[in-house]
Amino acid sequence: MKRAAEQGLRIRQYAPPAGGSVQCTVTAEDDLLIGRLAANFTTAERVDLCLCDQQGIERLRLPDIPFPSGAGSVVWQPSITWAKAAPSNTLIARLVTFDEAGVERLLGEYTFHHTRTLPGDDRAGVLPEG
């Protein structure tokens, strides 16, 4: 991100606390969208990022995402094009890991309340069903 900023790219960044939420948006001038998701990864060997709708129903899973050993957060860079087209909505992101028996365990849940600021159809760009 430092290099992107040095090159003059406009970065929109949000970092809701685990269990918390944030109001967010993007503008036509933004080039990158970054989410910082803080969690305790000390016992994790594998981490999945689950993207859920407002009701908490999982719509997309990014399995086995890279996470820095000993770090306190991961960086998620969703598509800025998708975010610019997205309607006002709520997205819930969950970081999960798995215990020795393969049982899923929640590391953190983060709620993003997106407000559309660009003109256009406020129904476009929602997470797909199933």
Write the layout of secondary structure elements.
Layout lengths: L1 H5 L4 E4 L6 E4 L7 E7 L9 E5 L5 E5 L10 E4 L3 H6 L3 E10 L5 E11 L16
Parallel strand pairs: 1-3, 2-8
Antiparallel strand pairs: 3-6, 4-5, 4-7, 7-8
What is the structural class?
mainly beta
Helices, by number, come to 2
State the distance separating the first and last CA atoms.
32 Å
Rounded average pLDDT: 88
Order of helices and strands: HEEEEEEHEE
Counting DSSP E segments of at least 2 residues, the number of strands comes to 8
Proportion of helical residues: under 10%
Please tell me how large the radius of gyration is. Answer: 15 Å
Q: What's the architecture, going by CATH?
A: Sandwich
Strand content: 35-45%
Low-confidence stretches: none
Strand line-up of the largest beta sheet = 2-8-7-4-5
The level-1 CATH class: Mainly Beta
CATH fold-level topology: Immunoglobulin-like
The description of the largest β-sheet is: 5 strands, mixed
In total, the number of domains comes to 1
Shape: globular
Structure, explained:
The chain is mostly beta strands and 130 residues long. The chain has a single domain, classed as Sandwich (Immunoglobulin-like). The protein has two helices and eight strands; from the N terminus they run αββββββαββ. It has helices at residues 2-6, 80-85; strands spanning 11-14, 21-24, 32-38, 48-52, 58-62, 73-76, 89-98, 104-114. Strands 2-8-7-4-5 form a five-stranded mixed β-sheet, with no helix packed on it. Strands 1-3-6 form a three-stranded mixed β-sheet, with no helix packed on it. β4 (48-52) and β5 form a beta hairpin. The mean pLDDT is 88.
